[in-house]
């Protein structure tokens, strides 16, 4: 009788082992991991020209990474968007630049011709240059064709539609210069 009980236990263990091998959940998890690395954001990051010591949050959205360069020791925060143009518009970020969370930088925009439907407006691609030691606050937006000079500070939520001279402190939508870095209050 005890041999029969022991035999049943062995059979039960073998059945459980077979069930665990045939369970699709571990394989589905492996598939999700492999699929994650085929997403466009991971392929785009491989195309970036990155300087030494660049820190970038894992959830940064990148488009056309081959036209984006990031200087040494720059920091790109959580949920930032770096969207270079499809054909020509580049984004160049200087060394020691600091991007707060959810900063949006684009090197292309659309025209607004009244006789063309919105969905069919032609794109305009223009380079964006963000200088050395620039700080872009949370949710700042930098539009196509803008040059932000070395040492600038752009306040949170600002929309930069025009170039900023070096050392400027700019805030607002559209961003306007309200001071210079290093000036006494």
UniProtKB/TrEMBL annotation:
<keyword id="KW-0808">Transferase</keyword>
<dbReference type="GO" id="GO:0016740">
    <property type="term" value="F:transferase activity"/>
</dbReference>
<protein>
    <submittedName>
        <fullName>Hexapaptide repeat-containing transferase</fullName>
    </submittedName>
</protein>
<dbReference type="Pfam" id="PF14602">
    <property type="entry name" value="Hexapep_2"/>
</dbReference>
<dbReference type="InterPro" id="IPR011004">
    <property type="entry name" value="Trimer_LpxA-like_sf"/>
</dbReference>
<dbReference type="InterPro" id="IPR051159">
    <property type="entry name" value="Hexapeptide_acetyltransf"/>
</dbReference>
<dbReference type="InterPro" id="IPR001451">
    <property type="entry name" value="Hexapep"/>
</dbReference>
């Amino acid at each position: 009788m005890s041999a029969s009980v022991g035999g049943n236990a062995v059979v039960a263990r073998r059945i459980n082992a077979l069930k665990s091998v045939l369970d699709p959940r571990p394989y589905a998890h492996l598939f999700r991991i492999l699929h994650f690395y085929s997403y466009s954001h991971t392929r785009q990051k491989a195309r970036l020209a990155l300087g030494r010591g660049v820190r970038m949050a894992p959830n940064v959205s990148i488009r056309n990474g081959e036209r984006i360069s990031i200087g040494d020791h720059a920091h790109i925060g959580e949920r930032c968007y770096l969207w270079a143009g499809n054909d020509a518009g580049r984004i160049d970020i200087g060394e020691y630049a600091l991007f707060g969370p959810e900063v949006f930088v684009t090197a292309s925009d659309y025209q607004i011709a009244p006789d063309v439907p919105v969905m069919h407006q032609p794109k305009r691609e223009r380079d964006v240059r963000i200088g050395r030691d620039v700080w872009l606050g949370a949710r700042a937006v930098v539009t196509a064709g803008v040059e932000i000079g070395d040492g600038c500070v752009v306040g949170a939520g600002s929309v930069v539609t025009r170039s900023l001279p070096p050392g400027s402190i700019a805030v607002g939508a559209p961003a306007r210069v309200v001071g210079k870095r290093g000036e006494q209050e």
